[in-house]
Amino acid sequence: MKSTLSSILVGCVVALALPWAHLAVADAAPDSAIRYVALGDSRATGSLHDPLSIRDGCFRTADAYPQIVADTLRAESYVSRACAAAKTENITEKTQFTITGPQPPQVGALRPDTTLVTVSIGGNDIAWSSLVEPCYTLAPGLDANCRSDATTAQRMNDALTVLGPKVSATLAAITEKAPAATVLLVGHGGIFGDRGCWPYIPTSDADAAFVVQFFVRMNSALADAARSNGAYFVDVAAAAVGHDACAGSDLRWFEGLVPRSFTMPLHPTHEGLRAMAALVVATRP
């Protein structure tokens, strides 16, 4: 009888406990709030439609792709530390001096509870625009033939050799500061297509295609760095085919050496920034 009574009491206790156990599990569900930090260079600061963007020395504006990402995902918190002219060292350890004062290393914005980080970096480390300058011509119809220049090829090779390790170290530093965050590294490219269009892209068609291949290699180095650090690579160049600086105003995501809008030369337009934001959202797991 005692055994039967004990069994009944235990059964009642378990039955009563189960609903509370269920609630306890529900209460302990993972926090789904998005706490987002954007890091990087001028590709992440926005276009120059807002003259007041100069006020912080970094040229951050409301149409920056990270701001669009934050709005789209309805982030609980969002902060951008992206700054024009930033290099990998300005993300990790070195103060960046701007016209309005010093900007501390960008990783200072990261917290252990940060859940999302985007990074646009690497172009200033290798000064990519100077690497393609030998491809420019002084008049339409000319061919600089930079694709056959050994010096240009060597400079590009040397730059890409050091790029991967720098970006990899940067991603490692980000993960150390925000170990729970999903990190997305945004790729380069898209400005150049398979043809020139003087003076916007002042190259021959053959040299324009050569520059495209340089960005293919650059993005390969970035993708490898992302993969080795558990980050996700956002392939902007692949999606931007047909939207380069030579495209019509209704298709163009980037401006060329001579801009046709309130956009910095060789940077994404407002439409390009929206496209980049969509790619980030689509790549995010």
Automatic annotation (TrEMBL):
Domain (SGNH hydrolase-type esterase) spans: 38-274
Which CDD domains does the annotation name?
SEST_like
Catalytic residue list? 42 (nucleophile), 267
Q: Which residue positions does the secretion signal occupy? A: 1-26
Sorted alphabetically, the keyword list is: Disulfide bond, Hydrolase, Signal
Q: Which Pfam families match?
A: Lipase_GDSL_2
**Record's keyword annotation contains Cytoplasm:** no
- Name the EC number(s): 3.1.-.-
GO MF terms here are: hydrolase activity, acting on ester bonds
Q: A single GO BP annotation from the record?
A: lipid metabolic process
**Listed disulfide bonds for this chain?**
58-83, 135-146, 197-246
- Annotated InterPro entries: SEST-like, SGNH_hydro, SGNH_hydro_sf
Domain of life (superkingdom): Bacteria
What top-level class of enzyme does the UniProt entry assign? hydrolase
Record's protein name: SGNH/GDSL hydrolase family protein
What organism is recorded for this protein? Answer: Rhodococcus opacus
